[in-house]
Amino acid sequence: MSEASLHSIVSSAFAPHVKFQIHDSSLRGTEAFRWERGNIKARLNKARLNLAWFNLFPVMRSSVRHSTSDRTDLTVEDVLPPHAGIAQLRDAAKDCRACDLWKNATQTVFGDGASTARVMLVGEQPGDQEDRKGHPFVGPAGKLLDQALEKAGIDRSRVYVTNVVKHFKWSAAERGKRRIHKKPRDSEIRACRPWLDAELAAVKPDVLVCLGASAAQALLGKDFRVTRQRGKFVPSSIAPHVIATVHPSSILRAQDADSRHRQMEALVDDLRQVARLIKRSAF
Ligand code: URA
Fold first, then answer.
1. Which of 22, 90, 119, 231 could be disulfide-bonded to 270 (CB atoms 3.0-4.6 Å)?
2. pLDDT by residue (tens digit) across 36-92?
3. With a 6 A CB cut-off, is 124 part of the ligand 1 pocket?
4. CA-CA distance, 278 to 226, in Å (whole number)?
């Protein structure tokens, strides 16, 4: 489908002739009136159909590009119409085939939260439970994140939570039915990036929090080291305030209760920086 035909589809969907044309109330109840009403209904249905195609088009276009070349310069504009809202993005992302991860995943796990949220948290990719439930950070790492946010004084219902990769990447455990998390490749992170860019454009968060190395390196560059640079606001063009901290799942892997407690306190300290900033600034 060419840009020109896309343009004509969209313009026909919004063309003025789709608006009601029956002005003459004296015609009401007549054959002419019924004919005109049927005609208008048919045009509106056609417009709806065209709009559905328009929503699907960017996804088809992005998967074609990714299957034919390894382009790294895709922008929001390449993938989705500008100014798409979160609901429209989530809907379009359901059928994303920009990399192969959809094949073994149950569903696309898009970001969750209000599009008016001032804070956006970005993790790596959905885990086993997120994949089943269709929402980010609802499994064990999510529970830990909830506790840390609460301790830091941040209301989770007021933040937007998402991941750099929207499909669960896993391999089967040697024994049993467990699905083991596998780290996403750079190419998979790149393929998924337009969705994250579109979320950033839709939410426009004042504060962006990268959870773990995958998110931090995807957004702040390969040289970023969470171990050294966590808990400090770093300059970035992505959002007015950007900070990175550890991924909550790293705390789940702590060797003993003591180190788990210390790591949790450190995560809460990092998140307190965000809480203080939100309180200080009238965003
Ligand atoms: N880990 C993540 O990075 N994201 C989730 O949604 C869940 C676990």
1. 231
2. 566 555 555 555 545 554 554 554 444 444 433 344 555 445 566 668 899 999 998
3. yes
4. 22
Report whether residue 248 contacts ligand 1, using a CB cutoff of 6 Å. no
184 lines ligand 1 (CB under 6 A): no
Q: Report pLDDT digits (tens) over 164-191.
A: 999 999 999 999 889 999 999 999 999 9
| Ligand 1 pocket member 249 (CB < 6 A) | yes
Distance CA 129, CA 77 (A): 32
**Cβ of residue 170 lying under 6 Å from some atom of ligand 1:** no
Tell me the CA–centroid distance for residue 167 and ligand 1, in Å: 10
Q: Is residue 179 part of a domain?
A: yes
Name the residue range of residue 179's domain.
Answer: 71-280
Residue 66 lies in a domain: no
Q: Does the residue 65 lie in any domain? A: no
- CB of 110 shorter than 6 A to ligand 1: no
Q: Which of 101, 106, 107, 124 to mutate to test the pocket of ligand 1 (most atoms within 8 A of CB)?
A: 124
Q: Note whether 158 and 19 are same-domain residues.
A: no
The answer on 156 and 48 residing in a single domain is no
pTM of the model as a whole: 0.75
Tell how far the Cα of 195 is from the centroid of ligand 1, in angstroms: 16
